[in-house]
């Protein structure tokens, strides 16, 4: 009978937490000395678990099972946000370590191959998803030569500093890697609000990020009557109200949009703003709805400009990220394990956050499992999850992993 | 017959413009080397006009007529905004110079006393209205010991650098200074919009300046459903809409309010803002209306907080500036001169901007005269006024000055 060891799991998570510990949180930025210490510790633990482990040429820790494939790859990341929590990323990697050990300790599953990865820089300290992108064969050398962290350090220099510049890069083995699983904390409050313990991810949402600039006329705030003002800030505020209304018409319960930043120019008490910038992001699990929101936004911009007093234009946008579906068969394995171990305590849900799984899913069938975040908080020192949820999540992931590997091996699920 | 010399007036304005000329605009910050050069040039011109001239211990250039009082004091400022126009302040000072010359050249008025001032730092490079405040006897030594410019230079050090630290300070002479006149560009677009050439100022508006802080909950912009968000930025936007509606109910055509700056915290695409700051200013010529707007704002804040999701509080405010009435008899002299020289081309109006006149009016009957600003623009390099308007404004100011001095001397107006 497959059994994880809850104490060993929690101890390893607790030990990883000590690298870069800052109050209850963690500061362990990609390729920093403390991140490299954590990577070397992790490599040691994976080696102890019997995996053949390396830290590759971009910094990814990769533990390869000594068993023949087909293999299930389990991964996430051990580096953190600038003011990160202890579980964001770390949970999935240590789940992989524990699942590899648990499978090896069980007579029926000891021949299964689980490879474990801690992908470098999911959070984008230098270049987001660097490890998973490199792994699936995307070209990353340009990013390595040009990306810098907030301190201005070049990624290529950071890799040299870490002694990795000459190390080989781990690559996806198409014949071996037949499935990818990424367990993660939810980073939102839905499971908690619904009283559930496990989330089975259906889709990683798509994202649009863009900047709108309103151009009016800078003027003296005392001498310019309201009637003749062309106040770019007031126009921005009015635009947001219309946009909210338009997006509400299109949204379902999971659609989100955020104005995260507003800059008024010149930004003083006494000057009617002549220009105003608005930073807008919206996310949805449906590619069609994202396109409908883009269309609605374009119509709003057109109408606004037709009215004339203040103009608005999109001045910048990130490349669109389309929603990524999780593999249906893999979802079913997680759902089956969840129902077996925690009947009625799980639900299907989209992931509102980005994950390495969205990179890998384009090359290998992929799935994700969520455990609840207390108060829905993440990317914050106080991010946390109840021990019982951490343990249950690992039990569900382990059982799903075994089922997936049985299925890959041509066996019927237990 | 009193006659100004248009060429001399425009030449002096043009020469003053060369000090700190930057494109069409001027950068001549208080007590900077170029500002001191301009002050020394001005002192020379005032001396040439027969006035006894000094640069006083705070930097004010003061030309005192050698005639006995009662005297009309004419003043404004020759220092500028960081990116200033060539007429803001300069116009009133050079009008004073030209009027002193014109009166001296006319047999009937040569015994009249016109004193001319360029008050230091109306614009607040170090400490707003420093010159006029010092002149009327307000305590300015604390400001001199503590105020700094944007480069961090202490006002007391700047005065030392300018060689003024030991110079005596010019003070109001109650027995001599019986009226104050400050000609100025309008800095708004009303005269132009109405096709008028002269504004007779009724009131310098009162000002309220305050900062509101909205506190919500910072959260992940991807994983936090709209329904449970406590978005401080969205709350701020909603608040502005309500405030606009409330203020519109109270406003007349001259009431103005401006949200000049908005800061969302932390200010990134991916984070629901947890806090938001709004910088609000409102101005009106009526003290009662300003109080009504304050009351309405307090009620909005109370109602907003009663709804609960995001709180709002006033976190900072400047001391209120109450409206300052211009002297009715002096207004009538300007109106009379305007009607004589430009029949039907003048109107009464409040000043939406602040001026040294509001400091001096508490001690001496004061008046202001406006000429049109092209496009209503000021505090900008492109600030400008048609030569014809500059000349007409000086003619009206000169005739009003003569009428005021005749009246002060107990004579009936011409």
Can you describe this structure?
Chains A, B: Keywords: Hydrolase, Manganese, Metal-binding, Zinc. Chains A, B: Homodimer. Chains A, B: GO terms for molecular function: hydrolase activity, acting on carbon-nitrogen (but not peptide) bonds, in linear amidines; metal ion binding. 2 copies of one chain form a homodimer. Chain A is an alpha+beta fold. Chain A contains 12 helices and 17 strands. Chain A folds into 2 domains: 6-204 and 323-408, Zn peptidases (Aminopeptidase, 3-Layer(aba) Sandwich), CATH 3.40.630.10; 206-317, Alpha-Beta Plaits, CATH 3.30.70.360. In chain A, strands 3, 4, 5, 6, 7, 8, 15, 16 and 17 form a 9-stranded mixed β-sheet that branches. The first copy, chain A, has a 4-stranded antiparallel β-sheet with strand order 11-13-9-14. In chain A, strands 1-2 form a two-stranded antiparallel sheet. The longest helix of chain A is centred in the last third of the chain and has 22 residues, at 387-408. The first copy, chain A, is globular. The interface between A and B is large, with 61 and 61 residues.
